[in-house]
Design a protein that fits this description.
The chain has a domain of about 220 residues: FAD/NAD(P)-binding domain. The termini are far apart. By secondary structure, it is α/β, with parallel strands linked by helices. Strands 1, 2, 9, 10, 11, 12 and 18 form a seven-stranded mixed sheet that branches. α1 links the parallel β1 and β2. α8 packs parallel to α13.
């Protein structure tokens, strides 16, 4: 067994996109940085694999990127020169109905207005007002996401105070469901807006989460697709890190964080290697791994250990996936109403009314499989022809599902996945009759149990690495004492999906963590601020 010791200024645990982002900024600032990952391939949720047949590319964890080319490292390090490109479909998000109608929202705000007006003129006006308010404050919105949270004298973070100013103080106590049903009247319009909020991986019924839902509505038609597969973004981040002197170490499963006189000073891997960090250790894995497994309860203050043990995981961010290789894309019955539904990117299949979403939330809360599968779906090859052989297509189905189905062990998924996948395909076929039969070449499932085993940071299969609930949201994420990216252990920082603002492909937790580390080390002036549209708004926040 190797006993090699290597020395760095900063060691980052976890080479998902947040770990790569934090490392890239700190390496740019002149620090000697190493990123360690337990897997043989870096990128974490930026994963693209041929799980059906060769030549058919499937994004396993992240597919619909809500920020696209607004990701800070893309802008600050010009990753377009490394080939990072996003497709931004015009028909961006939509819902076919069983009655043969189609509600589609577009990049073009006027077309979205006209689409909604076909269902409700009042709702079209309300949507336009909402989008106008968010557009006028988009830089503040982005600055709030891409800045470490700073609670005000009222105990709220500044972004929540902004929302109270924009939409009234009452919005802070509302659930997403309250907000949407209070402003919109048509059930299909309500359902599509709530669907967009729900795919963020949280319960739309929960009070005090309306602000998060409204923030999502600021980007409702910004869903984008990374050319060549989501993994391409990871490769660009890793390549840029290496070019700036950083080190990427794969097959390096961190088992221990060593404390020296109470300070985090080194990490040890399962194979006995030691990586010394003279300035800081950044963990981008979940807090239970970080504190209870890598440090150990016996080395922590009892209050911290108890706080970490109480962090909640799931159930609203746990996914069951079906990946399909197929000969032709779905053709919707609703295309007779609006042909654009056949080329809509992010599809709501089956959530036609708020009651559909409420029922699904109740099922997840009870650990039940869906009585009627309702889907987050898309066909990437309509926009990126590189993701399948010529003339062929790939389809993605995501279904929020319980980690422990019907109260049984998570391993139960291995036996029920094939039949449940067929139920999901059948649910899609109800809207697009050609989705199935000889059109389907091969199907591959990806269960919550497999997700939790493959990416252990996604504890219990949840992609947020800590549930988004009021006590673990925004400036309280993942707990109040850990929300500032620093930890009670000197030299140890948190920068993963469990941190502000949440999981998903935003790079915000890693970016925010890098700001805090740089501030503590006195090198903030070396970070590349000033290139992004919201940098001035972020500077104003820092100066308050």
């Amino acid at each position: 067994m190797s006993r090699e010791t290597q020395r760095f200024d900063v060691v980052v645990i976890g080479a998902g996109h947040n770990g790569l982002t934090a490392a890239l900024y700190l390496a740019h600032a002149g620090l000697k940085v190493a990123v360690l990952d337990r897997r043989h391939e870096f990128g974490g949720g930026l994963s693209t694999e041929e799980v059906t047949r060769p030549g058919f590319l499937h994004n396993l964890h992240s597919n619909f990127h809500g920020l696209g080319e607004w990701l800070p490292p893309i802008l600050d390090f010009d990753l377009a020169r490394r080939g990072v490109h996003y497709f931004h479909p015009e028909a961006n998000i939509g819902m076919p109905t069983r009655a043969g109608r189609a509600l589609v929202l577009y990049r073009d705000e006027l077309k979205s207005y006209e689409s909604i007006a076909r269902f409700s003129q009042r709702d079209a006006d309300a949507y336009a007002d909402l989008r106008r308010t968010l557009a006028e404050n988009i830089e503040e919105l982005l600055a709030g996401a891409f800045s470490p949270p700073e609670p005000t004298e009222t105990g709220r973070d500044r972004l929540r105070e902004d929302f109270a100013r924009w939409f009234g103080a009452g919005v802070l106590a509302q659930s997403p469901l309250d907000f949407v049903q209070g402003r919109f009247e048509n059930p299909h319009v309500q359902a599509l807006l709530l669907y967009h909020m729900a795919i963020g991986g949280y319960d739309i019924r929960l009070k005090e989460l309306a602000v998060l839902g409204i923030a999502f509505l600021g980007f409702i038609t910004n869903w984008q697709l990374c050319r060549g597969g989501s993994h391409f973004l990871a490769h660009a981040l890793g390549g840029e890190l290496l070019c700036r002197g950083g080190d990427l170490v794969e097959n390096a499963h961190v088992s221990k964080i060593h404390l020296e006189r109470g300070r985090a000073g080194a990490v040890e891997t399962l194979d006995g290697r030691t990586f010394v960090a003279s300035q800081a250790i950044v963990s981008t894995v979940d807090v239970r791994q970080t504190f209870l497994e890598m440090i150990g309860r016996q080395s922590l203050p009892p209050t911290l250990a108890d706080e970490v043990a109480k962090v909640v995981y799931g159930p609203s961010d746990v996914l069951f996936a079906v990946h399909v290789a197929m000969r032709e894309p779905p053709r919707y019955l609703a295309a007779r109403d609006n042909p654009d539904i056949d080329r809509t990117f992010n599809l709501d299949i089956g959530y036609e009314t708020p009651e559909d979403l409420i029922e699904h939330c109740e099922e997840l809360e009870a650990g039940r499989l869906c009585r009627v599968p309702r889907l987050n779906a898309g066909v990437n090859t309509l926009f990126d022809r590189t993701q399948a052989p010529d003339g062929m297509h790939t389809a993605l189905i995501w279904q929020f599902a319980p980690y422990e189905p019907e109260g049984r062990p998570s391993s139960t998924w291995s036996s029920i996945a094939p039949e449940y996948a067929e139920r999901c395909i059948a649910a899609w076929r109800e809207y697009a009759p050609n989705f199935g039969g000889s059109n389907v070449i091969e199907v591959a499932t990806y269960t919550p149990d497999e997700i939790a085993q493959k990416l252990v940071n996604m504890r219990r299969g949840g992609f947020h690495a800590a549930a988004v609930i009021p006590s673990q949201a925004a400036h309280l994420r993942p707990t109040e004492s850990l929300s500032g990216f620093r930890t009670p252990v000197p030299g140890l920082y948190l920068g993963g999906a469990c941190m502000h603002p949440h999981g998903g492909i935003t790079s915000a937790p890693g970016y925010n963590c890098a700001q805090v580390v740089a501030r503590d080390l006195g090198i903030s002036h070396k970070l590349p601020f000033g290139k992004k549209p919201w940098d001035k708004a972020a500077a104003r926040r820092r100066s308050r």
